[in-house]
Task: structure prediction
Amino acid sequence: MQHFSCASTSYYLDHVLHGGFPSGTITEIAGPSGCGKTQFCLTLAVLATLPVSNGGCGGTVLFIDTEGAFSAERLVEIARCRLPELFKDDDSLHQLVSNVYIDLIQTCKNLMNRLKNLEEDLISKNVRLLIVDSVASLVRKEFGSLQDGMMRRTDFLTAEAGLLKHIAETFSIPVVVTNQITTRFGITHAQSSDSSSYDKLESGDGKKTLGSSVEMDGEDTYMTAALGNTWSHCVNTRLILQFLPERRRQMLVAKSPVAPFTCFDIIIKDEGVLQDGSGVAVHPCQPQVKATEGNNRDLIAENVTQTHH
Result:
């Protein structure tokens, strides 16, 4: 079966991920409200519909929206501004919108039923990217914090993760989900079961980070992706979006089977989510690398096309 990696919004991110978001796996984008998670997904949706020769997946996108945040107008704006040479008339934009299928789902039961009966649509519609925005909103709304609610939440997340993994592996496509951020107090990193094997490193703003968590101001206080340890182990790649001072945004590669810990600035413009040309990507064992935005699109196409053999 052919493997379909999906180009991200940044050449440098594609580089550290060895070609983009890998097929057969779950990639999570976590961050606080308003940091750009849905904008990132809309940008991915535009890129995934492109032909393979242009760095895309050459198929369609299924976008499961649990928050009502999807905007067709924003999708069109990103395509028109980011790739004006490809989306220069109404016909090309209509084709783009036709290639992005939207499911608005508002309950956990409906989400599970949709995932269980998704295979026929994946085949008939030639879906090459599945997006779930978001996995956290329904769970947080329907399951309480009491022990019984937490047990039912864990069972639901385990079943959901199993279905998403099955879809990703069976159809060899990338699955991208968004998640929210939670702040934990009074628990040290050493005590946290969310911690991965990463050593404590520094993000671009000097904050300490360990695995999938980022230390905030104050002792033993840090932010981490929501939904707990059970869900964390189901995710193959985790990207964390966070706000920085002076209205800046930063992306952290917090968990990956192939990429080192990496962070760089991003910016949201009419073209969608872009790597900030003034940002610096940081490797723990490599020199700092200045981000280059000028010929990102050609580099993305070249980098990702090599994965389609």
Notes: The radius of gyration is 19 Å. Residues 188-212, 285-309 have pLDDT under 50 and may be disordered. The CA atoms of residues 35 and 241 lie 6 Å apart.
